[in-house]
Amino acid sequence: MRTPNLVEIENVGVRYRSADLRLGRARNDVWAVRGVSLSIGHAETLGLVGESGSGKSTIGQCVLGNVRPTEGTIRVAGFDVGAFGTRVPLDYRWVAQVVWQDPYRSLTPGMSIGTQIGEPLARRRKRSRAEVATEVARLLEVVGLEAEMAKERPSRFSGGQRQRIAVARALAAEPRLIVLDEPVSALDVISQAQLIEMLEKVQRELGVSYLLISHDLAVVRHMAHRTAVMCRGQLVESGTSNAVAEMPTHPYTRELQDSVLDLSSTEREARSSGRAVPVARQQAHTLCPYLERCPRAIGACERDLPRLVQNPETRHLTACHHPLTSPSA
Ligand SMILES: Nc1ncnc2c1ncn2[C@@H]1O[C@H](COP(=O)(O)OP(=O)(O)OP(=O)(O)O)[C@@H](O)[C@H]1O
What we know:
Structural class: alpha/beta
Radius of gyration: 21 Å
Number of helices: 11
Largest sheet: 8 strands, mixed
Number of strands: 12
Strand order of the largest sheet: 6-7-8-3-9-10-12-11
Strand content: 15-25%
Helix content: 25-40%
Bound molecules: adenosine-5'-triphosphate
Shape: globular
């Protein structure tokens, strides 16, 4: 039976054990994400935005089955992904694939791209060499490259072309979901636009879903049907991409929009003045993750963790005691 959502993430928390602690010293575990609930529909793109360290990649790794959540559940196409052991089952590799920011993470430098795209094809089902070659040519065409390029190695290609090859390799597994972890941030503006257009075309034609991880709200707005905003491991706002971009209700989302670089204005200010960047006061995520930087903080913010509630005007969810569209904003 086809469920309404391909991906269901419920109340997920991930605690990393500190790797560099020597025996005899107290553990200093880090909750990278806490209390995160998200869903992704069939043929839908969910954009996950937030500054560096907000927990986006951790969510992506959980969805891929590479990181096991400490708490909560993750279901993807009927797989209980959160319950996987140390090895991701092969069957699940045909469900979820990834394209990294740096295509060299997905591509092997010394191997022709045809061999690399063909490898999952041959493993997925029995095919003759000729069938694999035909399918590789078709996939290259799907991502806007020429069939003859199959015999070339990755080093011959530009960054944008390498990302197309990485997408073709992911598509060879015939996945239902592709995690796109900062797929365009290493590219120039023109290559970014071309890659986004290609990914959208692939989605329309194949019905694949995307989890798009990015620090760039503009890219996410353009490509994602819905946007979820993360701040220090917590979800602070989510809704349709247009609503979140046009009428952000969480002050952190507004700050992200106003940031030109991948640094918050507070951090830029702090760095230029030599002040220390404020660190989260609470590890247990019992208060708003944005509290110490928020220009709109009120008494309630010092007392309780704001829950995600639906904004009556914009219809999207915001976890804020003093949201931007409240009457007193
Ligand atoms: N393997 C790990 N061990 C310990 N801590 C980790 C590990 N991976 C991530 N973290 C910590 O978890 C938090 C979230 O990191 P994560 O990479 O998920 O954030 P992000 O939003 O994807 O950041 P970036 O955009 O810089 O990749 C950070 O504080 C990070 O230092």
